[in-house]
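Annex B. Sample input.
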Amino acid sequence: MTAVPKKISPQDGFFWKTKTLEEMSQAEWESLCDGCARCCLEKLEDEDSGRIYFTHVGCRLLDGDACACHDYANRSERVPDCVRLTPENVRTLSWLPPSCGYRLVAEGRDLYWWHPLISGDPNTVHDAGVSVRGRVEATETEVSVEDLEDHIVSWPALLPRRAKLKKRPG
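Annex B, continued. Sample output.
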């Protein structure tokens, strides 16, 4: 039986293709983040099925316009349930969006055209419609836990059509 040849990727040779997640420097690791801020949205888990539901409610530290944390360096101290992504947990966190750079690299997949490491432009994540910019309706300080169910949305778990393109639209 003949082995199926490995598909050649135009990204072969880049650090995320040549290093394991554990071998990456801190700067390389951080650069895998595309800046979408979808992971900073509040999520609910169905206790029976384990299914994750995203909301359009942001963490109290999320700047929804910049798609960045107001206090990234101290986020874990200020938000005790903030999940720090690590090489170990990105392989098992089921709620990471399908577009997440950490998830894609952990799965051995290529980054999308709009990822800043590919495009060279941190704004392409917004241009592609992947980020939360303009979609965060409130922060967790404005919505009670009991009311989060009323804020469930499906878009964070989906990839926008233009983000699926092979290259930046014309």
